[in-house]
Design brief:
seven-stranded parallel sheet, 398 residues, single chain, 13 strands, Rossmann fold, 16% strand, globular
């Protein structure tokens, strides 16, 4: 197909296109980082399903399973394909790169581009697992979607980012103007809370696991993980105690039910892994959180503690999921990968900077430039060693 020059196009702060070569370089670097820690590969995982596998923690999980353990992987994602002069989404190009690198290294990889909430996606996944992978050792649930169509009744649920009970006012940064301002978010009503739980809670995770169990596709001692976030108290009204938090609490209750089911049937387990704050399309949309992350990155980098998705998943897979690993959980039975973020000395410095930060000293007191760079890199832009003036092939497929 004809190549074209792809320059970053934005609508406000959001990139509306993606650069295939930049996305490929991102995936290559994650693969190299995992591979350098896993020679020979770790043992304990043969077949892995990642639901929500094309970006962020889901993609990093799939890379860790494949290049860290030599696992067969199946990824489920919903991404826009390229069409004419329009590029695909970054997640699509990430998945293309994953497949190319897996072929290069002799690893089995299959992907389904479909709505993970749908019955059709679940049926397709079951067929691939049964015919090509064997019983699953690990299922990662890492779905981040704004809407969900109920497979039984067809109703579309839309999630919202709102506090519960009363309005919430705090500092935030306007990502377009780069101004530190004050934002007030009205409380959610009961329907908005219920809809957010329906989208981001544990119901779909439970449906996936029940389907896989009914189809006899779960191996002995199978494990399943769903990802969550807690964060500092300053963000709790909009996050942990807000509509998202209600969904995350539902996710945790689902983990308890699934853990009992898997333990009784297969000696397996279900856990929540609480991860560190990273830049994603979803996190950038939450008021207050981008400013918090910009300050957090500055503090953690100064202390040599900062981790991105690859480093977090490297820790999760090698320290918690590898054969013979010593498992440590918090009082609620969760895996805590946010331990560096939540260190008292880190949070003390973040709080001090938060109190004093203004528009005038945004770049001095935070790593807002790093936040911007990481966000654009999600779409394959501002990636080292990529010539953005050179034509590149956009009509790719896996």
């Amino acid at each position: 197909m004809p190549e074209q020059v792809v320059q970053r196009r934005s609508r406000g702060f959001i990139c509306v296109n993606a650069h295939p070569e930049g996305c490929r370089r991102n995936v290559e670097r994650q693969v190299a980082a995992i591979g350098a820690q896993a020679k020979p590969p770790h043992a304990g995982l043969g077949s892995v399903l990642v639901i929500g596998a094309s970006t962020g923690y889901g993609l990093a999980s799939r890379i860790a399973a494949a290049w860290g353990f030599g696992a067969k992987t199946l990824g489920v994602c919903l991404e826009r394909e390229p069409e004419g002069n329009k590029t695909a989404t970054a997640g699509f190009y990430n998945t293309v790169a994953f497949h190319d690198l897996a072929r290069r290294d002799g690893l089995f990889a299959s992907s389904i581009n479909a709505d993970a909430f749908s019955d059709a996606a679940k049926r397709s996944a079951a067929e691939i697992v049964r015919k090509e992978m064997g019983k699953l050792d690990l299922i990662i649930y890492s779905v981040a979607a704004p809407k969900r169509a109920d497979p039984k009744f067809g109703k579309v649920h839309a999630s919202v980012l709102k506090p519960i009970g009363k309005a919430y006012t705090n500092k935030t940064v306007d990502l377009d103007s780069e101004k530190v301002t004050e934002v007030t978010i009205p409380p959610a009503n009961d329907l908005e809370i219920a809809d957010t739980v329906a989208v981001m809670g544990g119901e779909d995770w439970k449906l996936w696991m029940e389907m896989l169990a009914e189809e006899d596709l779960l191996g002995e001692n199978v494990r399943t993980l769903a990802y969550s976030y807690i964060g500092p108290e300053m963000t709790w009204p909009i996050y942990r105690d807000g509509t998202i938090g209600a969904a995350k609490k539902d996710l945790e209750q689902t983990a308890l039910a699934l853990d009992e089911m898997l333990d009784n049937r297969l000696g397996g387990e279900a856990r929540i892994a609480v991860n560190k704050a990273i830049v994603t399309q979803a996190s950038a949309a939450i008021p207050v959180v981008p400013l918090y992350m910009s300050i957090l990155f500055r503090v953690m980098k100064q202390k040599g503690l900062d981790e991105g998705a690859p480093e977090q998943m490297r820790r999760l897979f090698f320290e918690f999921l590898a054969e013979g690993a010593t498992l440590k959980f918090d009082e609620a039975g969760r895996i805590r990968l946010d331990d560096h973020e939540m260190r008292p000395d880190v949070q003390k410095e973040v709080t001090s900077l938060w109190t004093n930060i203004t528009t005038e000293d945004l770049r001095e007191l935070s790593d807002f430039a790093g936040f911007q760079h990481q966000f654009r890199a999600l779409f394959g832009f501002e990636v080292d060693d990529v010539d953005y003036s050179a034509p590149t092939e956009t009509m790719l497929s896996w």
